[in-house]
Amino acid sequence: MSLVNGLPAHVLLVHFVVVLVPLTALALVVCAVWPAAARRMGLVLPVLALVTLVSVPLTTGAGEWLEKHVGSSALVRQHAELGDGLLPWALGLFVLAAAVWWTTRRSAAQQDGARSGSVIRIAATVLSLAVAAGAVVDVYRIGDSGAKAAWQDGYSKTATGSADGDG
């Protein structure tokens, strides 16, 4: 995918990633910490994580196309390198979302309070917190580098006038 309505697809797709990764991370942490929320969300949690996972390679693929159509700079290369590192985080979100969904579903069916189930839930909660934090920080770093690559020297720090008569 290269262009959508005349715009580089990456510029549009990146908004899905910027919204979906933190949203999935938040939902994952809430469901891992609060089993009642996981039961209420049900299959929505792993489906959300799957949509997030699919959106990452679509966005990076479109970004690779865009990288070939803009001037190369250190900022663009840094952004591309950081962007390539998001897929493992998205995969981690998906795997943990599926695990939290599965363990919540399993524990609701058993109602035993088995010791092994609580150990798995604790491990899933700790891993969910770590992966969610890592994914959100990575999205921030990627977005920051992308904004710098796109806007570095692309605007004036002082107002140059305005089309609506403010300046």
From TrEMBL:
Residues 6-155 form the DUF2231 domain. Signal peptide: none annotated. InterPro entries: DUF2231_TM. The chain crosses the membrane at residues 12-36, 43-66, 86-104, 116-137. Coiled coil: none annotated. The keyword Transmembrane helix applies. Keywords: Membrane, Transmembrane, Transmembrane helix. This is DUF2231 domain-containing protein. It comes from Streptomyces guryensis. The lineage of its organism: Bacteria, Bacillati, Actinomycetota, Actinomycetes, Kitasatosporales.
